[in-house]
Amino acid sequence: MSRYQGTVGEPRVIPCPSWCVYQDPSDEACHSTERRVPATRYHRDRYGDDDWADAYFTTYATFSRLGPRHHLVHLGLGEATGFELTADEARQLAEALILAAADLEAATGGEQA
């Protein structure tokens, strides 16, 4: 564990994993780098004008001093509230997505729409 160096130059009091890039003292948690994937097929009716909007899937890890029940992988869509997954659930979802993509590629010859 390392200590996250705050923006004001003072170490935070919560021991963090080496991957911590942001610490939230209010929930005693450390967060990894956010990773985004474009959600090019996501349609959002914004302001009633039936518009296509830039959207993305987002994920990051959270480590909490509150214990293993609070360690999680976040999966979200844009800025909306997302899902909290265990590491095992995140791995299972990743595997399911890879298999579904392989099924689609097999059916289409790898052709993208």
Largest sheet: 6 strands, antiparallel
Output the helix-strand order: EEEEEEEEH
Poorly predicted tracts of residues: 1-8
Overall domain count: 1
Distance between the termini: 45 Å
Mean pLDDT: 80
Percent of residues in beta strands = 25-35%
Question: What is the structural class?
Answer: alpha+beta
* Residue share in helix: 10-25%
User: Over the alpha carbons, how many angstroms does the gyration radius reach?
Assistant: 18 Å
Shape: elongated
Tally of strands: 8
Number of helices: 1
List keywords for this structure.
single chain; 113 residues; 8 strands
Explain the overall architecture:
There is one protein chain. The chain has 113 residues and is of the alpha+beta class. The protein has one helix spanning 87-108, and strands spanning 2-5, 11-16, 22-24, 29-31, 35-38, 56-64, 72-77, 83-85. The protein has one domain (2-86). The chain has 1 helix and 8 strands, in the order ββββββββα. Strands 3, 4, 5, 6, 7 and 8 form a 6-stranded antiparallel sheet that branches. The chain has a two-stranded antiparallel ribbon with strand order 1-2. The chain is elongated, with a radius of gyration of 18 Å.
Topology:
Elements lengths: L1 E4 L5 E6 L5 E3 L4 E3 L3 E4 L17 E9 L7 E6 L5 E3 L1 H22 L5
Antiparallel strand pairs: 1-2, 3-4, 4-6, 5-6, 6-7, 7-8
